[in-house]
Structure to design on (114 residues):
């Protein structure tokens, strides 16, 4: 089988670039710094208890500090909004339920369009 010259050059260039590309594509380990879980309800409630149980399991599994922040107000909208504005790096997450993630967003959007 005879390879055309252009095809051979493409294959050779790809083979030469492969070792440098694989080093550049190495991923970092995920939990390189503390993870923050924002609970949009007061401390001591059922959502807070579930968040703290989840944080303890994550702390044991990931081997990284997990911080719980209770950000209350406006039926959970303030806490969820804070998570929405956080850097999209995966270190700030939210725990909530139907009323904090769906119902409040719907009421906010309908009131601003009127």
């Amino acid at each position: 089988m005879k390879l055309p010259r252009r095809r051979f050059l493409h294959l050779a260039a790809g083979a030469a670039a492969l070792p440098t590309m694989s080093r550049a594509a190495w991923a970092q380990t995920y939990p390189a710094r503390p993870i923050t879980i924002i609970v949009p309800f007061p401390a001591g409630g059922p959502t807070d208890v579930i968040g703290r149980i989840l944080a303890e399991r994550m702390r044991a599994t990931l081997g990284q500090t997990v911080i719980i922040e209770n950000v209350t107000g406006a039926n959970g909208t303030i806490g969820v909004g804070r998570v929405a504005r956080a850097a999209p790096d995966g270190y700030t997450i939210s725990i909530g339920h139907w009323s904090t993630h769906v119902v409040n967003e719907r009421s906010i959007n309908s009131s601003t369009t009127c």
In short: The mean pLDDT is 80. The chain has four helices and three strands.
